Structures are given as structure tokens and as C-alpha cells.
Amino acid sequence: MLQSQKLLAPAALLAQLSPAPILQTMKRILFTLLLIGPFVLSAQTPLWIWPDRAEKTETVYFRKVVELPAGKIKSAKLQATCDNGFSLFVNGKPALAG
């Protein structure tokens, strides 16, 4: 003869849990997000670069030299955008276009 097991519905199961530890955890997460949020957002704010006197049909070239410590960087993510089109090169080789 099979013994029947009493299964609890999800609502009944949640009712058995005390909300205090869950609320404390949620408060800690919210506090952490509010504390570090402005720093993360400011680090990701994009800046448009353009010469002051460029014509609308003019092709403009930008160059930025970045020196990275040898052997320290295993991978990197490169993001770029523009309003018309771009070709991005790293060490003289095509890396990104848009």
C-alpha cells in the first residue's frame, strides 16, 4: 500500500517561511545597489567626441593610444557607436565596424 504524502501548494509553503530573513536580505541588496549605483552609472556614461569645426560631410579621424600592462589583460570588451559609420582598428588591424 502506498503512503500518501501531503503536498503543500506554493502559497502554503511560502506562508511557512518567515519573512524577516528575506526582508533583511532584500534590504541589504537594495542598500548596496543604491550605494554603488551612481558609481557604476557614471563609469558607463558615453561621451560623444567630435571636432568643434567639422563639416557634416567631412570624414574625421580619431586616434587614441592605450597602453596596457603586458600579460595582465586576458580579454577585453570593446564597444563603439556613431551616427553614420565607423571603422575601428586595434594595432593596425580591423577590430570593429558599424
UniProtKB/TrEMBL annotation:
<keyword id="KW-0472">Membrane</keyword>
<feature type="transmembrane region" description="Helical">
    <location>
        <begin position="29"/>
        <end position="50"/>
    </location>
</feature>
<keyword id="KW-1133">Transmembrane helix</keyword>
<keyword id="KW-0812">Transmembrane</keyword>
<protein>
    <submittedName>
        <fullName>Uncharacterized protein</fullName>
    </submittedName>
</protein>
